[in-house]
Each structure stands twice: as structure tokens, then as C-alpha cells.
Design a protein that fits this description.
Distance between the termini: 30 Å
InterPro entries: Inosine/uridine_hydrolase_dom (IPR001910), IUNH (IPR023186), Ribo_hydro-like (IPR036452)
Shape: globular
Number of helices: 13
Structural class: alpha/beta
Largest sheet: 9 strands, mixed
GO molecular function: hydrolase activity
Keywords: Glycosidase, Hydrolase
Order of helices and strands: EHEHEHHEHEHHEHEHHHEHEEEH
Number of domains: 1
CATH superfamily: Ribonucleoside hydrolase-like
Organism: Paracoccus nototheniae
CATH class: Alpha Beta
Protein name: Nucleoside hydrolase
Number of strands: 11
Strand order of the largest sheet: 3-2-1-4-5-6-11-9-10
């Protein structure tokens, strides 16, 4: 029988400043068993995101294994993408000093996902906050895992609001839209935490600094490496930072703070709307067409931003 009070989590990530806060939240949460971290390209090249994940886990005294994953998208003919160094720094962690060198790890994240899901049937919860490439490859390699995973929670999509990399698309989806379409189309439960909600989940600078002061060395590291991220938002007129990935982590542990909309989801993988997430909502179903045969998935279009921030603060400083 599955113990629903515990969360066996694999964190699929591309650290990444807001990824670091999400990882710290998972490590600190008393009901989360972090079984492993899989890395993907996105906020930085995969060699750096893998190095960054290892650095953070070491600094926080956690022994979860790190498995490197995809270095590029499944989507053919993707337009060139520059890594967002203006947001996450040249090293992916806000240019905070990192005393580990990148290594040339084997690309085994998808196989690690398959192995762990099969080892713990009905128990694994995957939290994916980067490109969905590792997940898509895993379910392509082993379609049976869709019926064995407990659920998949992702940070991604922009369903009823503009995107943050193009008017149509959120960055994680845009970076590999074919992979996202595969993930939404697999026979597992997917809950997306999209820009519709995360762009309303804003941690102001004074709160971040207060958490860093109260939360001990671990939270101090998060606050320190987030300073360039805050400066990026300051240039846009905001004194603080959006906590996209940590909001998705809270959705995994505290779903009562989120309101879900359900329907079949497709992702466009070409044209000017590349990366657009489109839901055929269950409460006002249109003709099925391209949604025919797709499973109904979930998107947290609404929620309680202040309660989400309070939960992050409670876990990360408790």
C-alpha cells in the first residue's frame, strides 16, 4: 500500500537560481524523500547544470545521486537558443562561486527515471522544472512507466497569459516543445504549474534577505546566489523575484493551495507559435481534432500566491 504521507521525489532540473530554491525546499521538507536529481540543458549547458546540482547537494549535506541528461532538444529544427546568462549568470547560479569543475557525465537520466519508477511502482513523483526532454525520452524508451509513476508535476506552460520567451510560449516548453507534447500525451497524471500562477508568486527582496538571515547557512546560500536574479527583475521594475520552480515544488507537497483546470493538452512544435500550450478544457470541450485520444491533464491556473510563499518560508527556515 502506498504511503501518501511521504513523497518519493525525483527532481528533474536545470540549476538555475529558482531551481536552487526549489531543491532546498525539497531537501528541507520533512515528508519528502529525494531519491535523485536528473539534469537537463536550459538555464545553462547540461555540464554546468549537473555540476551545479552536485554543488548544491554537497553544500546542503544531501547524498542524492545526480544523473546528467539531455544536452539538447528532441524537437527538430529548433531555432538557435542562447543560454540566459543575463538571468542566471555565466555559471547558472547567479555567478556565485562554485568550487567544482564540470565533468563529462554519461547521459543516463532517462534510464535512471525508468529504473527508479519500476523499482518503486505507484510511488515515484517526478518534479520537472526545466525542459521536458528527459521525461519524454524515458517514456519513449519505456512506455510502461506511465502506468507506474504516481504523478508528474511540472513548472511550465502559459495557458491564458503571454509567454516569457515569446508571446506564445513559456521558456521550459519553448526549449523542447515536442518533448512537452509527448509528456502531456502520456498516460500518466501531469499537473502543470504555469506562468498563469507563477507570475503572481513574487518574493520581494526584503523577504528573501530575511529568510537568508533566519534560515541558517543553507538558506543564506540561496539568498546569496539569488542576488543577480533579483537585479534582473529590478531592471523590469520589480524589487524581488518570481519563484516559478519553488511554486511547483509546493504544488507537489501542498496541492490544497492550488486550483486545477483539467483538459487535453497539446503543444505546438513549429511556426511562430512554437511552444504554445493549448488545453481543450473539460468544462467547455470543443471539437476534439488534434486532442483526440489524448489523456486529460491538469494545470494550476489559479492558487493562493501568498500561502505558497508562506509555505516556502516555513519549510526553508523551519
Amino acid at each position: 500500500m502506498t504511503d501518501t504521507t511521504r513523497h518519493k521525489v525525483i527532481f528533474d532540473t536545470d540549476p538555475g537560481v529558482d531551481d536552487a530554491l526549489a531543491l532546498y525546499y525539497l531537501i528541507r521538507h520533512p515528508q519528502v524523500d529525494l531519491l535523485g536529481v536528473t539534469t537537463v540543458f536550459g538555464n545553462a549547458p547540461v555540464a554546468l547544470t549537473t555540476r551545479n546540482a552536485r554543488f548544491l547537494l554537497r553544500e546542503w549535506g544531501h547524498g542524492a545521486p545526480v544523473h546528467a541528461g539531455a544536452s539538447g532538444p528532441l524537437t527538430p529544427d529548433m531555432p538557435p537558443e542562447a543560454f540566459p546568462t543575463h538571468i542566471h549568470g555565466e555559471n547558472g547560479l547567479g555567478d556565485h562561486p562554485v568550487d567544482l569543475d564540470p565533468t563529462d557525465d554519461p547521459d543516463d537520466a532517462a534510464q535512471f527515471l525508468i529504473d527508479m519508477i519500476r523499482l518503486h511502482p505507484g510511488q515515484i513523483r517526478v518534479l520537472a522544472v526545466g525542459r521536458m526532454t528527459n521525461l519524454a525520452r524515458a517514456v519513449q524508451m519505456a512506455p510502461d512507466i506511465a502506468g507506474l509513476v504516481r504523478d508528474v508535476v511540472i513548472m511550465g506552460g502559459a495557458f491564458r497569459v503571454p509567454g516569457n520567451i515569446t508571446p506564445a510560449a513559456e521558456a521550459n516548453i519553448w526549449g523542447d516543445p515536442l518533448a512537452a507534447d509527448i509528456v502531456f500525451g502520456a498516460a500518466w497524471r501531469v499537473v502543470a504549474v504555469p506562468l498563469d500562477l507563477t507570475t503572481r508568486t513574487f518574493m520581494d527582496r526584503s523577504t528573501l534577505n530575511d529568510l537568508g538571515a533566519r534560515g541558517g547557512p543553507g538558506m543564506r546560500l540561496v539568498a546569496d546566489l539569488s542576488q543577480n536574479y533579483v537585479r534582473f527583475y529590478q531592471a523590469a521594475g520589480y524589487d524581488g523575484m518570481l519563484v516559478h520552480d519553488a511554486a511547483a515544488a509546493v504544488c507537489l507537497t501542498d496541492p490544497d493551495l492550488f486550483t486545477l483546470t483539467t483538459g487535453e493538452v497539446r503543444v505546438l512544435s513549429d511556426g511562430m507559435a512554437l511552444g504554445l500550450t493549448l488545453m481543450n478544457p473539460a468544462d467547455r470541450q470543443g471539437p476534439m481534432g488534434a486532442w483526440q485520444g489524448r489523456p486529460r491533464q491538469f494545470a494550476a491556473l489559479e492558487g493562493q500566491p501568498q500561502a505558497i510563499l508562506d509555505r516556502i518560508a516555513q519549510v526553508c527556515t523551519g
